[in-house]
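Recap for those who missed Tuesday's class. We walked through two folding examples back to back. For each one, the amino acid string is listed first and its predicted structure tokens come directly after. Nothing is annotated here on purpose, so try labeling regions yourself before you check the end of the notes.
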Amino acid sequence: MAGHSKFKNIMYRKGAQDKKRAREFAKLSREIMVAAKLGTPDPDMNPRLRTAIAAARSQSMPKDNIERAVKKGSGDMDGADYVEMRYEGYGPAGVAVIVEALTDNKNRTASDVRAIFNKQGGSLGETGSVSFNFERRGLITYALEKADHEELFEVALEAGASDVESSEELHEVSCEPDELHVVLDAMMAKFGDPSGSGLDWKPLNTTELDEDKARSLLKLVDSLEDNDDVQNVFTNMDVPDEIMEKLSAE
């Protein structure tokens, strides 16, 4: 598996299902709150909020939770004031890692992220130290059964997508970051809610890992994703499918 996308993280996550779900909903709520705060609470007039709500719905987040997050972000309900942060560093075997966070305490989050890197055999670098090895893009994913490749390809390209790839698991639609909401609207109008949508970091080159190094790297990814402030983790790891399947079953 080349790269590490936030839409594929679910196969690595460990722990109780309910705990994971609660944490995922909390992260989705934060993104909705920030989107509503930065723009209007009307998703029709706020592309980022529209994308955040689509992502929440794709994870079966209850409608009440979504509406509450919008109200908190727009100031109709009390809520924390979150800011966006990005951290970059290296994991075991020199794998490049990008961490995106939404936090109400930058010092706490920076300290926590640094501690996780150090504990798991990695090192936190300066902003920009690894992101030059990645391409920023919009990414929309659909389950294979949701659409035929040819039809999805046609709709996506007509909407402005730059690429469409289909694997044994899903369809991936890539586009320029600024075009994400336009492409997403067109895809949803034709195929309904996606299984994932948002901004992504695609590695321009990858680092191949054996089983031991992959296990160490995934421990770092899991530890970062377990942090409440961390929204997304991206890496340039390349792990053979048979090793990934073995590790995900541990």
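Example two. Treat it independently of the first, because the proteins are unrelated.
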Amino acid sequence: MNGNSLKIHGEHLVVLSGTQLIKIKLHAEKATWEEQHTLISDTGGPINGLHLVNDSVYVADIGDAKPGAPEHRLVHLGRNEELVRFGEYPEPAAWENKDQANLFRDYGKRTVANPEDGRLAAFYLFQNQIRLYGGDGELLQGIAVESSSNSASDEEMWIYRADPFASRERIYVLYIGMPKKEVEENSQTFRPHLEVWDWEGNLLDRFRLDQPITTFTYSEEFKKLYGISFFKEDVLYEYDLNQGVITDNEKASSAGNGKNSKEQDPIRQPDKKIIAENDYFRIEPPAGWNYPPSWTLEEKKSVGERDGLYLTGATFVRENPADKSVCGASMQLTVGVPKEETFDVEEYLSSRAEDYRSNDQLDELSIEKLANGINGYTITYKRRFVDPKGEAYLSTNEHTLFEKEGRIIVTRFTSCDFFERYKEVVRKAFQSLTLKDAMPG
């Protein structure tokens, strides 16, 4: 809980507002007010990081943070009595504003408790570390997690772990692993991981989520995660973790050794094959490829008009966490139906090929006519582009333009680093194209 919040705790709805904590008993017929408590506040302001360890004890962050001073306090709720202060603020990072007033903000964290024995786990938002405590505040283990991704600049504020949820055996937490600025600038492509830890400090599983989840809860009974996103309002996401659990032996050992478990998407499994279709075509993308996560059902069915054609199509991307690339790998399909019987297919294909020849932004351009009597062209080229940080990249592109059953078909395959790896499977996928009824005419 932070500042103001609303949570379920056992049979109670717990409301935190400023320095007041209210317990409301939940019944089938209606909810009833049960008790209210004034909480200990150093500053007179809201209580931050509050988490109920049990019905009578809570843990909270200490608001007047000082270097080397305790971070947390355990408080008896009924007696409003501080039981113990514990933890110690870490040494400031290189990017850290050394102003003492910012210490609490810059070392933001969330603390959760084991519902059975009261053990505590603190996950830091801007520090790649985790701390495990006994129910009395004794430090049991400090885990400085090694990461293959390091900040390119000491001035960047990286976000690591957020919004943990604890059960008797497991701790579930979102892993961000990127600068705060990148999260804000890339809301359409932001995809966090879900990490699963045990109470001994071992990283058991790691999943890449296929939506920009920013907060979640977990149902132990149904083994399901429910998440929402600041970037997509009015949507509740449900994940069945039974479908994404790793069953091989590639588990992480101690996270302190920096070893991660195999990454696996609980919704889009890397080896799963899909069928993509609408009213006008059917195609089988390669295993592990799918529509971009942002595509809606309406986009998959949509039909447009341009250059005398009714147009539909699809885009597919490779969602493999091991494929780290600026441009990744993508394939696109466009199906066009002439609006008029007088449409000149030969002239259209030829003019499109000429458009490529006249584009001076394309390197190593090659245009070849298709063989076996197929009316069309294969176009290959490379293209340079520069990312927002000024880094230059060279993508490889293979397009085909041809006629099939009276329709214009355009296929595109683009990648920077993985063109050769996926070239053949993408070609076979395009060959699986089946055309259905003609579009509106």
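Answers for example two:
The chain is about 10% helix and 40% strand.
The longest helix spans residues 345-357.
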